[in-house]
Amino acid sequence: MNATGLKIRIYGDPVLRKKAKELKRITPEHQDILSSMSRIMYEQSGIGLAAPQVGINEAMIVVDVGSGLYKLVNPKIIKREGTQVLEEGCLSVPGVCIKVRRANKVVVVAQDEIGKIVNIPAEGLFACCLQHEIDHLRGKLIVDYASFVDKLKINKKLSRLEKRSKDEELSQSETKSCKLQL
Ligand code: ZN
Hints:
Elements: H1 28-43, E1 48-50, E2 60-63, E3 70-81, E4 84-88, E5 98-102, E6 105-111, E7 117-123, H2 124-137, H3 148-163, H4 172-175
Antiparallel strand pairs: 1-2, 2-3, 3-6, 4-5, 6-7
């Protein structure tokens, strides 16, 4: 585990399917990783990023939907209410957009980067983003929400993403086709 040299892991990388471990103790190294994750999220014009997306199998996420940066450790959803459907993209599944039905309001309990317990009520896009990132910590991806028709559309793309060599760069058109990147 090292905060330098982190980069976005792409669909097909096994780390994206692992369940992230809970942090027992937050070390300065974890704080460095949270800072690097925030930097990568902003560089990629994302609004959220989970640690498995940069190859780290631990329960940390960062989120900024325009109302400030949240760095969260061990986040859990303790309340859900209502439904919303938004078209979501994922920095780890470039070029794929999926309509995902989620709760419209959630309450998340987590720790901040110094270990203080925080209670976060969220609604709309913010709630969507938190649910997307917490899904990552369980190894769940937007493609798991794909309808039968969606699957027909994205199967080719997914097998191409899986097969591409690790160092192969993605073309610009592949990376940004969905408005929301999480
Ligand atoms: Zn994602």
